[in-house]
Write a structure and sequence with these properties.
The protein is mainly alpha-helical and 342 residues long. The protein is 73% helix and 2% strand. A two-stranded antiparallel ribbon has the order 1-2.
Length: 342
């Protein structure tokens, strides 16, 4: 890397990441000028929550090399748990609007849902992937992919069998008039969803960067043998990784219950969008997924605004395909190898 900051900046803008991010920023500013600041506000809010789902997906692929196509079902679990925890609180909140309890009780429902997702992640690792790992590591990616598809079908049908197919949603977590941001009125729930996403992303980054366990997770993702040599508990790290991944998805689902009412296949859209992000950023690149989430959110917002809601998956898919033709490893590249990569 050159010591000349001007040359370094030029090199960055010429890179796939720099070029993509620069074009995204230009597109966001142009659309904001053309259609109004709500384009920017919607992108930020949508990207914040999408980053949580995408981070969990990138984490489980980067560390465990599992293409988690059941990830949306943990989003669904988050919506379901949050609904049943929050619904009994609704009456109390209506009677005590403006109190500290009314402001904190929704957080209880969201946190409980995230913990439930983490517990489900532990069960998934113990009952499914741990057993597969003991029996065979041949064709791991394909076998684990088939398992996650089967797991998705099982969870969707369990939801349908036990809780029915009707929509279970809420009007909102927090009472009060919408907030005005850049002359755009945005609901308190959307604002809090972004704040919660920002807190979780920051906490996750600090955990992965500065804690001993976070460094152990990154070590396992880069070199399983080396991690074992230095005494890292591989099984414990894999268990924690799956639990954290599922908890992030469930937390996102609970936070967005006011937008995504719980029903059996509610996790499909978040799953598709998260895979767009992970493929765009680079498989296994967890922090790159955060930036990728805002790019994909911008593509979705612009598509709905300028073309129509029926194209919100088509246009992002086409653009991502074009990018990957020239940059197969994603705009940031895959920084992690995956413990079962050959």
């Amino acid at each position: 890397m050159s010591n000349n900051p001007t040359v370094s900046a030029v090199e960055w803008f010429k890179s796939a990441a720099g070029l993509t991010i620069s074009l995204a920023v230009i597109a966001a500013l142009a659309a904001t000028i053309d259609r109004g600041p709500y384009i920017l506000v919607n992108t930020v809010v949508t990207g914040g929550m999408l980053s949580l789902v995408a981070m969990g997906l990138a984490l489980v692929f980067g560390v465990m090399n599992i293409p988690m196509f059941a990830h949306g079902e943990y989003f669904m679990i988050g919506t379901l748990v949050a609904y049943y925890v929050f619904t009994p609180m609704n009456g109390y909140i209506d009677q005590h609007t403006g109190t500290l309890a009314a402001a904190l009780l929704p957080l209880v429902a969201i946190i409980v849902a995230g913990l439930a997702g983490g517990v489900m992640g532990v069960l998934t690792e113990k009952l499914v992937f741990s057993n597969l790992r003991k029996r065979s590591r041949e064709n791991w990616v394909m076998n684990s992919f088939l398992l996650t598809v089967g797991l998705s079908v099982v969870l969707i049908n369990l939801h349908q069998l036990i809780f029915g197919t009707e929509f279970k949603g809420i009007v909102g977590y927090w009472r009060g008039a919408p907030l005005s941001i850049m002359d755009v009125f945005i609901s308190r729930d959307r604002c809090m969803a972004f704040v919660l996403a920002a807190v979780m992303v920051t906490a996750f980054w600090l955990f992965m960067t500065y804690t001993r366990t976070g460094r152990a997770i990154r070590a396992v993702s880069q070199d399983e043998t080396g991690a074992l040599i230095v005494g890292i508990d591989l099984n414990g790290i894999l268990l924690l990784t799956m639990s954290m991944s599922c908890a992030l998805a469930a937390f996102a689902g609970a936070s967005l219950l006011f937008m995504y009412p719980s029903y059996p296949s509610v996790g499909l859209e978040p799953l598709y969008m998260a895979w767009f992000v992970v493929i765009l950023a680079g498989l296994g690149n967890v922090l790159g997924a955060v930036v990728g989430a805002f790019i994909v959110a911008l593509l979705k917002v612009l598509t709905v605004e300028y073309i129509g809601s029926g194209w919100e998956f088509v246009v992002p898919s086409v653009l991502i395909i074009i990018i990957l033709i020239f940059k197969p490893s994603g705009i940031f590249g895959s920084e992690v190898r995956g413990i079962l990569d050959k």
